[in-house]
Amino acid sequence: MKLIASAVLALCTAAPAYAANTFACQNVKDYGALGNNATDDTAAVKSAFTAAAAGTIVENGTTISKGGCVYFPAGVYVVSSTITVPDRISVYGDGEGGVLGPSDDSPGASVVRGTMNAPILNFANNRFTLRDLGIVGPNNPAYTSSVCVNVGPKSAFNFDILHVFVSACYDGMLIDGAFNGNLHGVTAQRNHHNGIRALSAQGSWNSINVTANGGDGVYIGLGSINKTASPWITNLQTWDNGGYGVNAQEGGLSLTQFFINNDYLGGIYVGPSALSVQLASGQVQYSGLTSSHGTNASAAGIKFADGYSSHAQISGLQFFDDQGNNIDIASAHAHVSIASSTFLGAGRGGIIGNQYAIKSVGEEMTVSGINTNQPVMFSGRFSTWGNSWISSNSSLPTFHVAGGTNHAFTGLNIYQNSTGKAFVSAPGTSYTIAATQVYGGSQSSGVALSSFNGSP
Question: Tell me, what DSSP letter sits at residue 295?
Answer without folding.
Answer: B
